[in-house]
Amino acid sequence: MTHTYSIKGMTCGSCVARVKSELLKLGDVQTADVQLTSPQATIVMGKHIGIQQLQTAINKAGNYTIAEDETRLGHLQQESMETTGASSVSYLPIVLIFSYITIVTLLVQFSNGAFNFLQWTHHFMAGFFLVFSFFKLINLKGFAEGYATYDVVAKKIPVWGFIYPFVELALGLSFLIGLFPWGTNIVTLIVMAVSSIGVIQSLSKGTKIQCACLGTVIKLPLSKVTLFEDLLMVAMCLIVLIIY
What we know:
Layout: E1 2-8, H1 13-24, E2 29-35, E3 40-45, H2 51-59, E4 65-68, H3 70-86, H4 92-112, H5 117-138, H6 140-147, H7 152-156, H8 159-177, H9 181-205, E5 210-211, E6 220-221, H10 224-243
Antiparallel strand pairs: 1-3, 1-4, 2-3, 5-6
Helix pairs in contact: 4-5, 5-8, 6-8, 9-10
């Protein structure tokens, strides 16, 4: 197996020689091509060697730091996200969540004996926010860090990433019990509209990052599906406000 690593601290040919020498002393290293220009090392291993073991080896050569090649990792992550993004299976969790919420809220209307559009809309949005806030709160710190990579507010005010799941929870409860429906719809409209701005900007730049909509529990690529979620909430709020 062949792995490529970046190495920091090498300044001359002697550095290259010392690093290469220490790497070749590792029993499972078959060949080591160390270059100063990149600087990087391409290592062929008979058995995988952990990064910490490689670091320990080159520490004997001097003050050098070895790490996974970021360019290579970026390409691999992009290819992985494109592959998963193109697969419908990737979005199965979101499809199931929306399906469950839709079916349950429609059954509530069926039990009432008549379809009340406003009530159904509020119940649907309640389910949406309660479920999505649940996943975010499982790993609040992880969500906040992921959300800050593309949300326009969280980028400038990181604490917003920690507050956002609680805002969703509050909105879900408000929709569920019918508390201040006009104000709840206004707040939801603003929050989801602002959230969609960051998604649109990231998609327009072609940025390949992970969507934080389901926290860190279920990993999904940021895509048009994410944008659809936000804009769906915006559209539903607008319709409700017009009816009011």
